[in-house]
Structure formats: C-alpha cells, structure tokens
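Components:
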Amino acid sequence: MELICPAGTPAAFRDAVDVGADAVYCGFRDETNARNFPGLNFSRDELAEAVSYARTHDVKTLVAINTFMAAGREALWQSAVDDAAALGADAVILADLGLLAYAAERHPDLRRHLSVQAGAANVEHIEFLVEAFGIKRAVLPRVLTMSEVAALTRQVRCETEVFVYGGLCVMEEGRCSLSSYATGKSPNMQGVCSPASHVRYRQDGREMVSELGDFTINRFPEGEAAGYPTICKGRFVVAGEDGYIFEDPVSLDALSHLGALKAAGVAALKIEGRQRGRSYVAQVVTEIRRQLDAVENAEPAASPLNDTLRLMSEGQRTTKGSYDKKWR
Amino acid sequence: MQHRRLGLTLGPVLYLWDEARWRDFYFRVADEAEVDTVVVGETICSKREHFHANVTTAVVDRLAAAGKTVRLASLALVTLERERKSVRRLAEQDALELEVGELSAHAALRGKPHSVGPLVNVYNAATAQVLGARGAVAICLPAELPMHSIAQICQSMPAMRFEVFGFGRVPLAISARCAHARFKGLTRDNCQFVCGDDPDGLPVDTLDGQPFLALNGVQTVSSTCHAVIGDLGSLRNAGVDAIRLSPQVCDMVAVSRIFRAVIDGSLDAGDAWSRLGEAYPEAQFANGFLHSRPGHHLVLQ
Amino acid sequence: MLPFPIQKLLSPVPLPVAGRVAQASLRRMLHLHPMLFDRLGEFAGRLIVFHPTDLDLEFGVNPRQRSVRAARPGGIAGYDTRISGPLVLLLGLAEGRLDGDAEFFGRQITVEGDMETALALRNAVEDASLDFATDLAPRRGPLRQPVWTVLDWARTALLAREIAQWN
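Structure:
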C-alpha cells in the first residue's frame, strides 16, 4: 500500500520525502485547494522544485485541486490543472465534475484521482466517474465502515485510497456548509473550514473561549486539551444539556486496521494534515511508515511508539471513526 | 428581456413526520398550496423509508390530480446495500421523474430525463453541462451559492431549468453518524426513530445560549429559516426558473401564497416579510448565503 | 519553564540591552534567510508580539519594517497577534521542531488576537528552516564551534526537559 503524506510547505514536502512517503500531496497557494490557509501551499516554482526533489527519491507528487470552480472564474482552476500537468505532477486530485471533464479532455494522460471532497460513497457513484472521466483512484469519504470499504474496493474498477490518520470530518466531505453558515467562507468554494480570519480565542475568567464568527464553539477549562474551532467538534447545548453534540475534539487513528485494509485491497493510505507543521509531518510519517512496513512484511504488528500520534491529535485523543460501525 | 414567471417547487419533507401528519400535509398542499411542482420522498435516512410507504401512492395521486408535477427524490447519502437498491428502484421506475440526491443513479437512469437535488455540488456551468449531457433537465443549486454564481450558471445554460433553495432551514451537513440518536444515548442502528420527536428539528444552541443549528437525524440544518422573499426580483433577473420551498412545521400553504403573491406583484416585500413571520412565528429569517455573507445573516434591500 | 538559574540570569536584563540583542538577532536571521517573511504576504505589516512566559520580557516584531523591540510583559499595545509560551517552546516552534497545533491542543502556547497572522507566521517561519544554534553562532573564528555546541546542547536539553514536564 502506498503511503500518501501531506505537505503545506516545501520544507514539509522534503521532510515527508525524507522520512518515507511514497507520495506527497500538496496544493497551490490559492482557493483551488481545500487547505487555503495563510502562508501555506506552493507557488508554481516551488511545486516544480518539489516535483523534481520527489522524483529523484522515487516519490510521487499529487496535486490537490479539490475545491469547486467558482462560476465565472473557472480559468483559475483550469490553469491549476494545466500547470500541475506541465510541472510534472504524477496525478491531480479533483472533486468538481466540470473540472474533471476539463482535465479528462485536455490532459488525458494525467492521472485523475477523485478527491474525498467529491463525497463518492458507493460503488455506482464511483463507477459513474470512472466511466465519465476515467478516474484512476477514489479517495473514500470518512463515512464508511471497514466492511463497506472492503466491499466497495472489490467492486469498483479503480484504486481506492483511505484516510488512516489525522483530522476527522464528522460530516460527509464536500457537502458541509457549517463553516460557511457561520463565516461566509466555505470549504467548497474558498477552501477553508473555520477560517483563521473568523476565529477568536479569548480568556473568560479561567476558561478559554473559542469563537467562530458570531458563535461560541467551545469553552475550555484550564488544563483541558483543546481542539480546532471546527463546528463539528464544538460543545453546544441541546435540550438544556451541554456536550459534544457531533464529535469530541479527536483525530482519526485507524492504524489498527492496516492489516484489514491491506487484505481489502486498498491501494493507498492517506495522512491528513497539510495545515500542520513540519514536526507533525516528520513524526507522524515516520511512525506510520514503521507500522506499515511491519504489516507489508507480514511481521508482528509494530507496537505504537510512545505517544507520538496521540499527542499530535486534537484534544490529544484519537478515534477509529466510521471504520467501526458503532461510531455511527 | 423576456422573463419567464418564477415557478414554485415544494421540496421534500426533510424531517420524520408520522404517517398521518405527512399524508395530511400533502393532501392540503394538493388542495390549497400555490406550487407547481412537488418533490416527494425520503432524502435523509433510509431507515425512515417505510414510514410513508403505505400512503405514498395516495399522496402522489392526489397531488397529480390537483395538477401538480410530482417528482420522486432519492437519498442524499448512499452507503448501505439497501440504500443502493432503493436508488436503483427509483431510477428504474418510469411513472415519475426522479430527483437525484447524489450521483449513484446515473447507470440505472440510462440518460432518462431527471432532476438534480440541492445536495449535489453544482457550483458552475461546466458541472451543470456534465449533468445535462446525462439527462438532467432541472437542477436545484446548492443553498450556499451566492447570487453572482447563480446568475453566471443560469445565463450560461438557458435550456436548463434552475431552482434555488428559497425557504426553510438550510440543509448544512449530512453524516453517517446520527447526532440526533447519539444525543439520546442511542446508536444509529438502534435509534428508535427518536428524530420523529422533533418534526421541525432539535435546536442546537451555543454555550452562551445563542440559537445556532438544529438536528434532523443524520442531517444538520440551520437554526435560521432561509427566506429569499426580498430577492425574488434579482433571482428572476439572474435567470432562475423556480424557487424551492422546504417544508417546516408552519403554515406552508400560507408561505406558498406569500411567495406567489410577491412573484405576481400583488404583494410588496415589506408586507411579505411580516406575513411570513405570521406563517412561521418561531422563525428567525436569514438570506446571507445569497449575498456572499455568513448564511445566518439577513440582508434587507 | 526555564531552569531557575537561567531565568535568574536572564530576568534582570535591561530593556535596551534585550532590544539590541533581539534586533541584532533578527537582522542576522534575515540576512541568512532573506525569504523568511516572504510567505507572510499581506500579513507582513502586522505587529506580532512574542511573550516568553518564563522571562520578564516580551518582543514586538514588525516583519515589514524588519524591526523588533523589547518591553516588559503587557507593555506592547496595539498588537495584531500575541503568542505566549515558554521560551524553548517558542524557539522549537520557530525551528519546526515542534508542531504548533499540537502545542496549542496541549495548551502549552496561547494565541491572542488575529489568528490568521499567527498561522501565516507559523507557516512562513517553518518553511525557512531556521536553526538558531547554527544561525546565531559566530560565522567563523575560534568561538564558532564552542558557541554552537552550547546553544545546541541548551536547546536540545531544555526542549526535552520542557516536553517531559508536560507529558
């Protein structure tokens, strides 16, 4: 199985290559990708350098162009695909049907991967896109159980890629307007979820309050581990009771499923976190590489090394997410 | 420029209403509501499908007899085997036009004319063209699209019928996990249909007591009620063909008549707002999405 | 927190001295990493305050003017973003040895004010691959190696100590 690692900066990209990525995914510095955060992502020149660094180490470069084209400004997304192709990307990761059609027509030889943002959660949906646009791989939404991943992988005529570690979307990806309801900036259009421009932390007595736009997302008592100010992991009040209504601040850790994913024929494992720092990339990729190698070589499962992955997680806790049926 | 008169479409009931409430609602719509098209069917949770199975035919017949165009809607999130079967069954029937909730129906549709629901991501004309080439004849655009995108898309494809989400709590997200059941200490598999206790959604407030969202089973909707009653002129000028009214626990017949009156020019927007408030007294109205603002904002022109 | 003797050593530093050292260090870093603030884009004009919670000092940096000034904690008004945390963690973050989000989840650092600026700065600084021991040691001469060794030892040992404390 290929290990697909995130990079938000050229330095993180080189780190990922150095510590054992089989492929690194990244995006351009604009709203054409779903991690359009300040100071993050790649210029055309930086991508060219990254591609060549990756190539000398036999590592692939995947370019995420996975937001939805703004009507009337399609050229920005189309030129991102053109440039990714010209700069030697091994694949583009797309979600928008119109952009998939463009890429299939203009760059038939450039591999097209279906982004998780396309929210393709069943065989017929993926098969439709294989037939229409010749997608070679689909990144599956984080709504499927382990057995559904296995069944789907058997039935579709393209490779499948799944998330094994990192930030966890509780809602189906690509179909969530929670953030844009609160801030006016949308993951699908502007490539941001809980944009930093609308996030505020303030101290209220002994509590740290996180706010998104006009809404309080959480109040953290002193010493309690914090999370991102995302709505799906916020603390709210329902019928007079407060709590994490959708999900606690946690990250996904599905590494205990590596054997099952391999048996299911999954082609690639994805690590979330282009917005994270170099140290995250280096530590997380190193640790997962080690565990993956054990699985690939049919060695006894590598025992998790200290607390690296937990401490890198939101709320310093992890979950197996939808891979376990009872999560639903 | 010649403008078509804006049509009105009643979207599917998003909440779990018991059989009697559901049937009586549609019978009254058939008899009294000022809508041209009615979309019927369960789009949120496949576990609810049996609730209305016994009365669906009667509802469809009554609506058709009243001169309404009826569409059948399919699920928005399809993962289970029984959900895939349900989509296939809907796609293969020829009696009524299908409104797809996602893109798994295409093979079974084999190019048959159909509609596309608001949870399919159509953000540009290129995407609408892809769907049009495969038989889509009407598309309800995503609720978060701003006016200038709506105009761009409509003007690029004059032959396609475009609808805009125009009234109701906005569908904001859908999950495999049921937050509604989870809140009541249950899992989705053993949910006991607790979402049926909240026919207009279960309110979610912030820790500071501000209304924010509402739970509808696996779906999350806005606490505010989206209402484009003040934007109908601009939407018509943008090239929109129809406005979608999404059923809430309020006087939907009155809502349809208010929209129709504004479209026909017999009611001005100011009066329309106060009458909408009477038809749905619990509602806080918003239209921010249309104006490139946070969705919960209300922009009055 | 810094070991007590080191705190004791650094705390009575007069503001003008701290300011001059900080300005010289910044100039040196910018000389070695001319692209350091390039990624900041529109955020380069913001005033960013760093408050090492174990020192009786804070520093206000204006990236566009390439200037830094020192003050007592709370002494710099009108900042856009203020980042607080133990000194070695702030340095570890700047060098990319630590992950900012993880330190934030663990409540080791706090950010007040504009989050966008904080995020842009984090990403810009990380990509520059700073290395304070190498960058701040004399470039040549007999002191280079010993100074580097001390700085490197200090950063490694203090960081390990800090991490051990909050695990």
